[in-house]
Amino acid sequence: MQKVMIERAAELLSSGKVNRVLGWRAGLFAHDNTPSVFTDAADLQANFVYNEFCGANLSKYLVKESDKEGTVAVFLKPCDTYSFNQLIAEHKIKRDNVYAIGVQCNGMKDVNDREKLEERCASCKSRKHVAYDELIGESGEILDSNRFDMVEKLENMTSEERFEFWRGELSRCVRCNACRNVCPACTCEKCIFDNPDSGSANKAPADPFEENLFHIIRAFHVAGRCTDCGECSRVCPENIPLHLLNRKFIKDINELYGEYQAGETVNERGPLVNYTQGDAEPSVVYERGNS
Amino acid sequence: MQRIGVFVCHCGSNIAATVDVKAVAEAAKHESGVVFSADYQYMCSESGQDLIKDMIKEHKLTGIVVCSCSPRMHENTFCKAAAAGGLNPYMVEIANIREQCSWIHKDMPSATAKAIVLVRSAIAKVTLNAPLTAGTSPVTKRALVIGGGIAGIQTALDIADAGFEVDIVEKEPTIGGKMAQIDKTFPTLDCAACILTPKMVEAAQNDKIRIFSYSEVSAVKGFVGNFTVTIKRKARYVKEDLCTGCGLCTEKCPQKKVPNEFNLGLDNRRAIYIPFAQAIPKIATIDPDYCTMLKSGKCGVCSKVCSAGAIDYQAKDEFIDVNYGAIVAATGFNPIKVDKYDEFAYAQSPDVVTSLEYERLMNAAGPTGGTLLRPSDRTHPHTIVFVQCVGSRESEDSTKCGKSYCSKICCMYTAKHAMLTREKYPDTDVYVFYIDVRTPGKSFDEFYRRAVEQYGVHYIKGMVGKVTPEGGKLKVQASDLIAGKQLHIDADMVVLAAAIEPDKTARPLATLLTASMDTNDFFTEAHPKLRPVESPTAGVFLSGACQGPKDIPETVAQAGAAASKVIGLLAKDHLVCNPCVANANEMLCSGCSQCEKVCPYGAITYSYKEFRMPDRTTKLRLVASVNAAVCQGCGACTVTCPSGAMDLKGFSNKQIMAEVDAICK
Amino acid sequence: MQMNDNTFRPKIVAFCCNWCSYAGADLAGTNRLNYPADVKIIRVPCSCRVNPTFVLRAFGRGADGVIICGCHPGDCHYTSGNYYARRRMTLLFSMLDYLGIERERTRVEWVSAAEGAKFAQTMNSFVETVTKLGKNKRLEDLRCKK
Amino acid sequence: MSENNICREDILRISGVDTRKCMRCGKCSATCPAYDEMEYHPHQFVNMVENGDIEALVESPSLFKCLSCFACIDRCPRQVEPAKLVEAVRSACIRRQGHNHLSADAIPAILDPDIPQQALVSAFRKYSE
Fold it and tell me: How close B15 gets to chain C, by Cα (Å)?
């Protein structure tokens, strides 16, 4: 796989079809591969890597890269292609400047427990590439995923238990902003939390409530646009299961407004910028489950 | 630093009896930024307003808070007073301590405490107010009427009468619409053509009115007062300025087998045609689907016989852009297709007709020259069965193409048909099967009773269940609910009162106009009772059956009403805009286009703009901008924007959060 | 309603749309329909103007309950605002519930300009519910007591 | 369901019909091929159920004159489905005639390999409580 990808990338560079290749660069250790731009074949040969530690979703890097001169080739795993589509829909990626190569993915390994698949890969929602110019390896199918199991488990807890659970998780937050910075849906020019004029500027939480506030708002801002790529949880240095917040919104949206997968196509109206006259009333929140 | 003045009104005892106004004024004094605070008997009185004006000058106030009744009551009064005192009228906030405090709380301490919180919250908000100026936008003094039926013609005539220019866009080769196809009109039974054609001629001769026939609206840009509409002038292959309407070509054209839509396919026309004798404009049109010259390049007869040289086989669709200040939708209606109702055998027998087809069969200019003949064998029918409510008043989940509403006009035109038939041919038996006879209208019920009492039409409460064509007859099986019998009638003709539905072009047009529609594709009015001829989209008005089923008098009345609204708009040189509108901060906008999707008015547009970057390079970025003349200030976009780039003037994020903070303190 | 330091009085923030619910609140006043003074109304043009941040801000600053009132679905002055608000608030409240914040502290109610009685009744029942829940303990625990 | 009294709610529940949707147009009776055989006609049937006048229906021979051709269901503009009411009254009536006309134990004896499974199930549903 890696060999074929390097060959193809070198070929694209030499033919002049692209002038840069966005891929993964081998790190000091086997598991710390990082996103990187390659411009020549030698560099590719020496440092390009594609193995089970290439979790980074490269689509967000295209926001900057596709804005530059010339065409950039990019390798996209199936889940990355959803983010790719979503970013195109939001005019963040200039599609004409990108040559997208879909690459087969069999799941990424968890850097903390290198024998195990990452949680997001163990509950993979789709092996299908929804956008690409060419494909290396095979594109799979949309899978029946059990990704909402944990959300459901939380929903079935009592309100107190849930509170304790989240207190335990969110109190570890150090507000490093990694989750926000890596998120392909977080592409604001300036985040409201960084903007003193927004009225909600909040660089570091003054109290635990503001910790919650940051995470609720972050999840709300990407609700309906989040493709559930799972990058937020991957990069969290405190291993907070942030994807459980995003998935809660996704699950609610699916249940209340019909199945929706952000990024599946480019020209869709997201569930939060859409409505039907017969939508569920907010009281549905009180009616289901026990408190 | 703001200098804020607080005025606490007693409202006689309305407020002062339950709220300690002195304590409120005193508490306000200690709020940051407040330089003046006082209570007064009646703030809305002349002297109360003078107090505001004087204090603004005396204390150089930059903002004021009036603690009084609901802003819905006197906000305007105090804004005007502030303006008179030299302050921007948008630097005024009202703390509602009457409706939302003194009137609902009985206990003085708690009411006073609440009033103080409300004042604090208003002070917190006004501190962040910014002076706003209501912008203006110019008005293009020309109106567009889409649809050239009686609704469109009447609207255009009324607008032109007031001295404004108006264009009619009609998709057919002639104006006239459905009314031109009708024989007689109820309840007076005067002939439709006799009252319609003079109006058509008047429209054609009025120098303020331009008629774009055989044309469609293909794009709409802009906003109230400033629309730019792209009109597609379909190629008619005849030069409009040369054709004299002599009609020779329509007689010589060898292609004779084209179903005549004006007669609903009951007879044929040629490939080059003028829809009917009184057509306006009276210009021939070539039907490209049937013309052999256009299809295979062989023929050219019309070109040879045309002495004016008007035929142009090379013609292409043309697109023209015109500016308008107001747009009127008058797209009208159509009867629904009734083929799906197998039980009525419409598709099986030519003698089962819809009411509009019957109208043509009765019309002197129709396919039978006004003699009522069965379409199948052209014999005179002796027994005619009318069926009411075909496709109207069906349940919402109807599997057929039925409509849940009452089509409103069928009861009356069926009474008319029955009456005219009996009058012309007293030897016919006429049965009308009805569920209810609905005749609310001036002289309507009298008309229906006349059909029964003078003309001997058999009105039977019940419904037709089945029509079977058999041996040249139509066997009608029906129920008579009052006699408690099932009837079997051998009829010669069956006439179906098909439900009416909005024209199919209305839905795409609504999208172009960003006007809203109901589930039946009728245009929605801005308010069902108080603004019945305006659409919720500013500058778009509604005329005729595109808004709901209507008969001719109602249509004409509504057309006049729509025209008067248009005239009211065009009479202004400038429109004053609501200054409390959304505003995009281009530096923060990331161009994600989410806000554009929630805007109900299409006020948000995206464009690439150049930005200077900190490193002195320039960058092209897609950013949103709000058209202040179109934005109504709902704020839907502000919440959609994750960056907070979109904010609402007068209700900004910071202002509302300041209020929240003041209340929760 | 006796102001008594020993009894708990909740802080309630009510966001009301200008066209229906704020007018409904005015009507409740005109008809002298009582509801507790704990409710403080903030006027917004439309329920769709209510940003989730405002709701969280209120809780962050010590509110015990937040209620959002708008025109009935289909009656929005701006045609579609409350439809968007309905989706947003449903999701937000569901999320707050998911994080373990009592779901009864949040509510959306549609109140038309003619429903003064409904407005008063809604506020009475909401205040009662929130009072029963007591102080916003879970959030209180989170907030630094300044 | 009580022994001797079939109430309106039972019929509505069994049939799943909402009689209030009826706008009294009479198209069901107009379309009914067995109209002349019946004492009570389809539109009356709907009306009688709506008024709780079930006993008269049960007593009337009309009940079993309906051909179940479903023309009334097909043609009803309000989707009231009168034939379903007939069917519901019929099964209520049959059930009332005695407990379990058919018991599970009795089935093996009368089992015929040609009886379709569906017929068995529906008979079982119809003839037992």
Answer: 12
